Amino acid sequence: MNKIIAKINFIFFIPFIFLILVYIGYSLFIDDSAVFNLAPPSFHHWFGTDLTGADVFIKSINALGLEVLTLLIVMPVIYFFGLITGMILSYFSNDRIREFFLNLIHYWVTLPVLLIALFLLILLGAGQKNAIIVMIFIYIPTQALYVYNQLETVKKNEFFIAKMSYGFSKRYIYRKHLFPNIRDGFTNYTLARMPEIIMMNLALNFLGLGVQPPASSFGRMLFDGLSFMYSAWWMWVFVVLTLILLFLYINKVLMVALRGSI
Amino acid sequence: MFDFGISTSSGQLVIHEVVTALGESLKSIIIALLFSYTIGTAAGIFSAKSRRLRKLWNRMEFIFYIPMIVFSYLVLYLLDFTGIDFLSNIRYVFAGLVLSIYPFYIVSKSVDKTIAEIKNSDFFSFHKSCGFEESQIWKKFCKRFVIVDYLSFFENLLIFMFGFIFFVETPFGIHGMGYRFVLAIQRFDYPVIIGFCIFSIILFSVIGILIETIKMRIDPRVSYE
To answer: Is residue A62 part of a domain?
Structure first.
């Protein structure tokens, strides 16, 4: 299985890196002083140019980098804080406080996440930094709820009662026995949220609340391409293709590979 | 009292804008719900019956995770290519179809899972050993399970559809909640933005309460808990 994944990784990545290197090399030797607005794909501009004359390929690479960066920040943070919050909820035995926070989280989970994100982002102000903060804030409760539910299930096992009766401290049991039990499941759960995070980032950027010009993002590129749907198809077709490839890669290769390595 | 103020761009009452937009959005949402529940159920039943279909289904799973805006753009371009007038009322149907891609997947998966769970359950084999036929057991006892299952994710599907509807309405030019929300953000029309957010949250809370009440009536386990 790992060999197959390595092969697919190779199929996806090597041509991608090769294309970028060739493109960078090519742009170094060719004079790019002339600006071509809305130029169709050519040998010089592989994905064409947009209204301002910016290269769509370079913009796509930047947008891809932004998605990766967002994932790299959001995923570890929601993993860590979700884990801590869920463990604290399960650890403390004060029923009233626990019930209060659990009800709060349950109510939070039933609310439309995207609308809350938009609302918060409008209050905070547009920008990718704020978008990342909002995404972290709205994903932590669901992460915590998952951890809490898993811990409560594991706590019903006999080994937990046995360890308690031996006189081990609760902290020790949580750290040494309960956490290892839920770790793999929770990591898989967090990894499975990768497409969700990308989708949310795409939505926020589509609405213009994420990254601001001149920086580029897939969401903003799609929105800009909407006005030129038929006259300048290259402004959105390549973005759409990149997104399909990205989701294919995440679902078929990356998540399988990461799960395999856990 | 609940008019949410006046829109700074159009000068209309926000509640009026919200209700008009809701009516527009509901057209494509109802089509999406109908499509996802009917075709999704059929697909779920087929994949429960055939192993090959399930395998194929699992292989094609990634398609359903692709953001719906990608499908919106592709469908819109194809419509133009084939010469279909996408400005007519047919756009609601196509918008509904695009909107239902992910819910369709959820429904079919859920039906498939429920069928497998019921078939492996003790009460199913017990009734079978009592001499009941499978179709009889399904009719008499299992209907309720499927309805409860449908209800359990109905609210989530609605939230998903309302939440990401601007991905469909903006390209298709439907002046529903999503489209107006995008416009309000671009025009910094804060009363409309806040009005839409509060209205949606109230709407989903009411739907949630209604669903829980129906669930309580249908499923005795909920009231027991």
So the answer is: yes
Contact B186 A208 (CB under 8 A): yes
Total domains present in chain A: 1
- Is residue B61 within 8 A of residue A251, CB to CB? The reply is yes
Domain that holds residue A228: 58-261
pLDDT in tens, chain B (225 residues): 567 788 887 788 888 888 888 888 899 999 999 999 899 888 888 888 888 888 887 777 778 878 888 888 888 888 888 887 777 788 888 889 988 888 888 888 888 888 888 888 887 888 888 888 877 787 777 777 778 878 878 888 888 888 888 888 888 888 888 888 888 887 888 888 888 888 888 888 888 888 888 888 877 766 665
Give me the residue from A112, A203, A225 closest to B204, CB to CB: A112
Q: What do you get for the CA distance between the two ends of chain B, in Å?
A: 38
**Which domains are present in chain B?**
14-224 (1.10.3720.10)
Among A88, A197, A188, CA closest to A136: A197
- pTM equals 0.82
* A110/B204 Cβ within 8 A: yes
CATH number of A242's domain: 1.10.3720.10
Residue found under tokens 């939505």: A203
Using CB atoms, which residue from A112, A248, A251 is nearest to B162? A112
A38 assigned to some structural domain: no
Cβ-Cβ contacts under 8 Å between A and B: the total is 90
Strands (E) located in A117-220: none
A window 78-137, beta carbon within 8 A of B:
110-116, 118-119, 122
How far is the CA of A53 from the CAs of A28, A35, A48, A72, A93, in angstroms?
18, 5, 9, 31, 62
Q: CA nearest B152 in A: which residue? A: A110
